[in-house]
Give the backbone structure.
Amino acid sequence: MLVEEALERYLSQQEGIYSSILEAMRYSLFAGGKRLRPILCLAATEAVGGKKETALPVGCALEMIHTYSLIHDDLPAMDNDDLRRGKPTNHKVFGTAMAILAGDGLLTEAFSLLTHPDLTQQVPAERLMRVIHLIAEAAGYKGMVGGQVMDLKFTGQEIDLEALETMHRHKTGALIVASVKSGAIIGEGNETEIEALGEYATQIGLAFQIVDDILDIEGTSEEMGKNPGSDKAQQKATYPALLGVKRAKEIAEKCIEKAIEALKPFEEEAEPLRALAQYIRKRRR
Amino acid sequence: MLVEEALERYLSQQEGIYSSILEAMRYSLFAGGKRLRPILCLAATEAVGGKKETALPVGCALEMIHTYSLIHDDLPAMDNDDLRRGKPTNHKVFGTAMAILAGDGLLTEAFSLLTHPDLTQQVPAERLMRVIHLIAEAAGYKGMVGGQVMDLKFTGQEIDLEALETMHRHKTGALIVASVKSGAIIGEGNETEIEALGEYATQIGLAFQIVDDILDIEGTSEEMGKNPGSDKAQQKATYPALLGVKRAKEIAEKCIEKAIEALKPFEEEAEPLRALAQYIRKRRR
């Protein structure tokens, strides 16, 4: 598959002095991720009439950033998780020091990839600058890093729906929106298209998180590759905990509807994005 | 001073949901660093005839990357240091989880700053792409992150001079070289100039490290803001340990000479770079 091959090409194992850090970085990068962010990015490029191959380095960079965030979130000082996607977490295999560095390495490599000749030879530099800025802001303290700070602060606390939404909009939503928008920018979408796709991404990002929370209650460990019930055990606020499972499912449905609605101006080029919205509604892991 | 003001402007404290992460990021960013990398970067811009103010966002990004690396290196799972520049380390003040995130936030913010309008409105995008790529490679697994991996692996081991040099070239040298080269690129230096300044940076980077090792033996805790002898206590390989203090000092002198030699093609515009080489030779902290 396109994304897997590209990830393998952009971060291949090497012999010699970098072998141990590459091994740790690759362990988590190839640990069975769904590749949601690169798939969304490439689908957005297609939706605005671009060639999806052009966006491959951007998609791979997004997956590296996502993977780094999982490695750091799992650390003993953070969520202290032993299992991720059915496998021992990075620090369980390589130790905490190496896991911190593997995360640092993936985050940094993402920005190296965003300035890779494969991109700079095909996409105007001004457009790439905008993509890099968008992704850096979405990943940083105003986005994903900020969301993880809120998550830590909220754990064990009673919070309201607004706080929960703010947290998720930062922790997972921001990078999902950046994935879709950057794909649209690479595909030379106009501002109206980029905004519409941003709205689509906001809605599926929220739906994705609500479904995630529901799976933590209803899913089996085989389906999820981790033990269900971990949110409750860690006293994390979730949508079903705040709203009940039934109401949470209704809101997730509503989000999917709004996401599909946002795609109205697009014709069949946006079919992959529509299918992704349906996949998020039905996913079991 | 130019760099301090710019850092304050680019990462100012805010009230509201980002206040706690900003506090942790700013704690280490404003903990008395020497600002060597931004100063080198700006001086290189001047050396090739550019305006040093243009390079300010790049210099600040470099300082953020340097600061993130110090926060992560000090973590309990890494060097487990309690003091840095005479102050408690980030994790001692904010806890390990927050220190990891403060580091992640600074690293990510650096790339946001490298695509800041202050830069994109003044410097051609192609030139900035080259700077971002250079800095990402120098900070990542082929540079600084890789060097920290080697440092962890070598601690407590007997290593030879070649291994020690490889480690330092990655851990500190790569970012120093990137600082100088990126300044030269921003200042529109030609390839010959960029290469000459790269050689200058390689030499002062090595000298800086050797002097650092010597200060760890000869310095006082007041001068250094940390306890001397920590390398020995941590069983770290150092230049004076491998070569003796006298020979290590001779090599540092030789590096400074070579650095000054590399500046020969430049006239008085390179005076700040020459002065920096002398500062490194004489520094006491």
